[in-house]
Specification:
- The strands form 4 sheets. Strands 6-7-4-3-2-5-8 form a 7-stranded mixed sheet, with no helix packed on it. Strands 12-13-11-14-15-10-16 form a 7-stranded parallel sheet, with helices on both faces. Strands 17-22-21-18-20-19 form a 6-stranded parallel sheet, sandwiched between helices.
- The protein is of the alpha/beta class.
- Strand 2 and strand 3 form a beta hairpin.
- It has 25 helices and 22 strands.
- It binds adenosine-5'-diphosphate (ADP) and magnesium ion (MG).
Length: about 675
Amino acid sequence: MALTDLHGVGPKLADKFNSLGISKVSDLLFHLPHRYEDRTRIQPIGACSPGQNVLIEGQIEHTAVVRSRRSMLVVVLSDGTGRITLRFFHFRHYQRQQLSRGAQLRCFGEVRAGFQGLEMVHPGYKKLSGHTAEPLADRLTPVYPTAEGIGQKIWVGIITQALALMRRGKLELEELLPESLLDRLEFPSLCSALDYIHQPPPDADTIALSNRDHPAQKRLALEELLAHNLSMQKLHREQRAQNAPPMHIRTDTEVQFKSRLSFKLTHAQQRVISEIHADMSLNHPMLRLVHGDVGSGKTVVAAMAALRAAGSGYQTAITAPTELLAEQHRRVFREWLQPLEITPVWLSGKVTGKKRQQALERISAGAEVVIGTHALMQEGVEFSRLGLVIVDEQHRFGVHQRMNLLDKGCEGGAQAHQLIMTATPIPRTLAMTAYAGMEVSVIDELPPGRRPVTTVVISNVRRPEVIQRVAAACGKGQQAYWVCTLIEETEAIEAQAAEAVADELSSELREINIGLIHGRMKSAQKRRVMDQFKTGKIQLLVATTVIEVGVDVPNASLMIIDNAERLGLAQLHQLRGRVGRGSQQSNCVLLYTTPLGSMARQRLEIMRQTSDGFRIAEKDLELRGPGELLGTRQTGMLQFRVADLGRDGNLLSMIPSVAEKLLRGHPSKVDKLIHRWIGDTSRFAGV
Ligand code: ADP
Ligand code: MG
């Protein structure tokens, strides 16, 4: 049913609803109130306390216009149990007359503590006639999140109409959750849930409702999470149904590569490599997520996959989200692959002009390994035989971007294999939604000889001690990072701040070679600094968070994070992962500036307690929700209408099995669920 079929909705208002993603009458019902007002009972004024939103009724004892900087209408209302002052900063002459002494008023507003006792600022009010009794609301009054030009009265009026249509069965609101599930969870049916949420009875559990913890809301959250899971599964199923080039030849190059490595692969690495190779040998695309904590050795796994593709005559594209990380891959891969006569092509946004042209030519001519940033996903990049796409630190990229890369040229309509590597640990539950339908490999073993990093949390007041500690460590031949963080992350300001810290440290630590690295530097400059740090010419590296991912200097054993309270857990964990890569005991100092908020305190405390990526990720999810964790905020993919992955985490764990049951037992409901909550999924496929 179209919105304009409702009373009071013309094309203009319908347009406004459209811009909120509401295009049908039934969509309106999924626009949920974010709070409620209780206008079903009158609260005695004497029983009011500050912070409450209440309906009160009383007689005006006194009205005056008080003039200070601006005139204000002040009304004192009493009901025999107490007095309250009403204040109006904007008022018209007629109001002053209306609100005269002796008048009977009913007001709704927030009670505050004022100088002269309780007050309400700009309450909504109604003058009562005194003859006929004014009826009270029989349901709680919903308050909707809204956009300009749509007042609460409009929402309430229109949603009331929609509810009436729903009750008469005029809207297509099919129950899409199996009855057995609803019974088991004691969840209400769709219609009674919507009814309850939009018009709760006076005795409703308002605490549960405002926490979005009521079964009526939970069942909608469950539907939405299911829809996301199912749509990702569908997307991945569709991809997997395509053809892909099978790559089953183990070449001498692979054997040679392994024997030339300076280390032996861990069991976990070997297992994951064989899982990948098994996938790649099929004639359908691999869709595999490799999940391994910081330092678990994902790069060599990627290299083994790339060599398999190269051995079968296919190209591999390796992308990383930052220039520095991509550079690191470039360096490592060059070192590893050049002796095998494979020269990786490099492409980032900073490669321009003739160099870019050359890179593009080599890519379209079939270069075996191509490494770069998101520049690889952009237009103009064409492969001739793309067989494998490797995305490192996937959580920074959106699904769209991955899809773009896949479109870049595989022979004969086939699709490339996909390998996604992620280090920021994603809680298993979350992975079930975002990566539904992907195979998962976990590298659950660190290379031998690693020692856990000892972490301390220290106030900036003790900065001089920390600086002395850096001096002592560097004096003993160790190397250290000093990471500068800012709230407003513009590269320019961040660079300045890092420069200032480098200056400060240089003047304090004259005997130490200090280097500086930040995002504003040219690639060649960055590379030079990193090389000097790697070879030990620089002992202390002052850096912005550009070093967050991928940087690998095993001799560095001390990490100072300045203003650590500003960073999220995922970032802190990534940064700390830069040390503890060599054989010596490593330390991390989290320097904070007071006052420390409670969230920040909890973050630093968990960092001090554990280096277990999974625990950190779970805590992160709990503290701030998953949007940033997955980096999908920009892509809009994981923006939920009702669900909140932090709050509804308990639902997540049941999603895979419920999804499975739906797919098997009620396949016709699957597309309907996706359609209800997500709409057309082709947008994920970059269409
Ligand atoms: P991440 O999983 O964080 O990407 P890397 O691939 O960068 O980890 O590996 C971290 C470091 O560990 C690198 O210096 C790498 O050469 C080294 N490494 C990887 N695998 C092993 C192994 N099996 N034994 C010893 N060192 C290893
Ligand atoms: Mg890595």
